[in-house]
């Protein structure tokens, strides 16, 4: 990186191929991790991100550069090679990549660094979206989002700077392909986050949390289950979506 624009605003977008099958890893990092090829990939990605941050610091841009590290989806549970699981791990969250509504596929890490402006060690526990990158970058550049259309994203800066306590997102719609699978409602006055699942994939095996026999969960058809009334979860108290709330006791 030569940073020829370091004296004026610039946007650097780095889309890493790492932690995605076929897990191409350079020889330097092969065998480094006790977690196999996937772990090797994570370590190489970590090195690349660190190298980039070091260059930003050496160019004197550390305190004037907004850095946002994120993923476009959760771990792909069905990615396997023999008995080796190649698609990451989603912790307590159910499901994974390609499953329209389950948290394991849509709840991703978002790590932000801007030492000259944002305080360290703050955590934002509010619904945000990768769609928020666009209005955030526009605001940082001193511009204005287009006024001739609806913009789904919201600037992250008020949450990060502490001038707002709650996300501006009230509803978030979670699709699988072109099919709506779930909707999240952020009830701002109480801080509660509800989620309703209208369609869910049929896991194979049943309690596996993934579609191992198919290799990928379908978005519609006989590989899905439609719910009427929808499955309802209080994500504030049940982030792992283990216990759907009974419709007759949840009139709201």
Automatic annotation (TrEMBL):
<dbReference type="GO" id="GO:0005783">
    <property type="term" value="C:endoplasmic reticulum"/>
</dbReference>
<keyword id="KW-0732">Signal</keyword>
<keyword id="KW-0106">Calcium</keyword>
<feature type="domain" description="Sulfatase N-terminal">
    <location>
        <begin position="5"/>
        <end position="142"/>
    </location>
</feature>
<dbReference type="GO" id="GO:0004065">
    <property type="term" value="F:arylsulfatase activity"/>
</dbReference>
<keyword id="KW-0479">Metal-binding</keyword>
<comment type="similarity">
    <text>Belongs to the sulfatase family.</text>
</comment>
<dbReference type="Pfam" id="PF14707">
    <property type="entry name" value="Sulfatase_C"/>
</dbReference>
<dbReference type="InterPro" id="IPR000917">
    <property type="entry name" value="Sulfatase_N"/>
</dbReference>
<dbReference type="InterPro" id="IPR017850">
    <property type="entry name" value="Alkaline_phosphatase_core_sf"/>
</dbReference>
<feature type="region of interest" description="Disordered">
    <location>
        <begin position="233"/>
        <end position="252"/>
    </location>
</feature>
<keyword id="KW-0378">Hydrolase</keyword>
<dbReference type="GO" id="GO:0046872">
    <property type="term" value="F:metal ion binding"/>
</dbReference>
<protein>
    <submittedName>
        <fullName>ARSD Arylsulfatase</fullName>
    </submittedName>
</protein>
<dbReference type="InterPro" id="IPR050738">
    <property type="entry name" value="Sulfatase"/>
</dbReference>
<feature type="signal peptide">
    <location>
        <begin position="1"/>
        <end position="26"/>
    </location>
</feature>
<dbReference type="Pfam" id="PF00884">
    <property type="entry name" value="Sulfatase"/>
</dbReference>
């Amino acid at each position: 990186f030569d940073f020829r624009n370091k004296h004026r605003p610039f946007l650097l977008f780095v889309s890493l191929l790492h932690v995605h099958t076929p897990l191409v890893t350079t020889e330097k990092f092969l065998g480094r991790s006790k977690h196999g090829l996937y772990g090797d990939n994570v370590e190489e990605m970590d090195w690349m991100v660190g190298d980039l941050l070091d260059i930003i610091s050496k160019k004197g841009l550390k305190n004037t550069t907004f850095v946002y590290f994120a993923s476009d989806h959760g771990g792909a549970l069905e990615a396997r090679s023999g008995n080796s699981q190649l698609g990451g791990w989603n912790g307590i969250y159910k499901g994974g990549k390609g499953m329209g509504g389950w948290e394991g596929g849509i709840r991703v890490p978002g790590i932000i660094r801007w030492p000259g402006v944002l305080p360290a060690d703050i955590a934002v526990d509010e619904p945000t979206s990768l769609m928020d990158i666009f209005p955030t970058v526009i605001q940082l550049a001193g511009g204005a989002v287009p006024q001739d259309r609806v913009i789904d994203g919201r600037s992250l800066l008020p949450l990060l700077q502490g001038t707002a306590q709650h996300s501006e997102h009230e509803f978030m719609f979670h699709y699988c392909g072109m099919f709506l699978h779930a909707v999240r409602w952020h009830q701002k006055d109480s801080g509660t986050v509800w989620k309703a699942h209208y369609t869910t994939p049929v896991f194979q095996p049943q309690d596996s949390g993934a579609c191992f026999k198919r290799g990928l969960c379908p978005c519609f058809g006989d590989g899905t289950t439609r719910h009427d009334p929808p499955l309802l979860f209080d994500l504030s108290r049940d982030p792992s979506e283990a216990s759907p709330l009974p419709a007759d006791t949840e009139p709201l």
